[in-house]
Design brief:
heterodimer, A: about 110 residues, mainly beta, 11 strands, about 50% strand, B: about 120 residues, four-stranded antiparallel β-sheet, about 0% helix
């Protein structure tokens, strides 16, 4: 299963709304997760099963979508959100990650 | 507190072998699928392998099939990745990760261990 993320890079200002999309090559039945990864640190699970916000993750993060098209939204970008974001499908084995979206703060 | 701690990385020659370990604590290890994920220098995350609770199911990304073996010891709360016939393109930080019971997300990760394949 191919996971296509877009854009690969986004530069936005604090307070901006940022949207990242992920498209699966086949229906993945909402088994879609989103991760935040900062250099030198372990990736952090933000959203699982397409829209379930993990405990402790700020509510400005949200996930939506179904079937093959999914979205991660950061409603009001904060300085600490500078990171690379990945989607991952877990419907078909092997699991696959998208190529990543680097979010830069202007 | 949930903790996953990888060890075993280092410099290895092409064609060589290395065994990674992941010691876990703070949760019931035998209740969870476990995975290995890697990140090559300057690249994105790549899922490598996973294993179910009783080792009756294991799967691998195509590029490591026949060379890597994932295993676990539930009595010792440990996950392993035996890596044989290593190639330069296996150079990466390797993370172990726990799969959440109901959502299939990888909800806890170790800090990673670097494997460098070079002569």
């Amino acid at each position: 299963i191919q996971m296509t993320q877009s854009p690969s890079f986004v530069s936005a200002s604090v307070g901006d709304r940022v949207t990242i999309t992920c498209r699966a090559s086949h229906n993945i039945n909402n088994w879609l997760a989103w991760y935040q990864h900062k250099p030198g640190k372990a990736p952090q699970l933000l959203i699982s099963a397409a829209y379930i916000l993990q405990s402790g993750v700020p509510s400005r993060f949200s996930g939506s979508g179904s079937g093959t098209d999914f979205t991660l939204t950061i409603s009001s970008l904060q300085p600490e959100d500078s990171a690379t974001y990945y989607c991952q499908q877990a419907n078909y084995s092997p699991d696959t990650f998208g190529g990543g979206t680097k979010v830069e703060i202007k | 507190e949930v903790q996953l701690v990888e060890s075993g990385g280092g410099l290895v020659q092409p064609g060589g072998s290395v065994r990674l370990s992941c010691a876990v604590s703070g949760f019931t290890f035998s209740n969870h699928w476990m995975s290995w994920v890697r990140q090559a220098p300057g690249k994105g995350l790549e899922w490598v392998a996973n294993i179910n609770q009783r080792t009756t199911s294991r799967d691998y990304v195509d590029s490591v099939k026949g060379r890597f073996t994932i295993s676990r010891d539930n009595a010792k709360n440990s996950l392993f990745l035996q890596m044989n016939n290593l190639r330069a393109e296996d150079t990466a930080v390797y993370y172990c990760a726990r799969t959440a019971e109901n959502t299939r997300g990888l909800d806890y990760w170790g800090q990673g261990t670097l494997v460098t394949v070079s002569s």
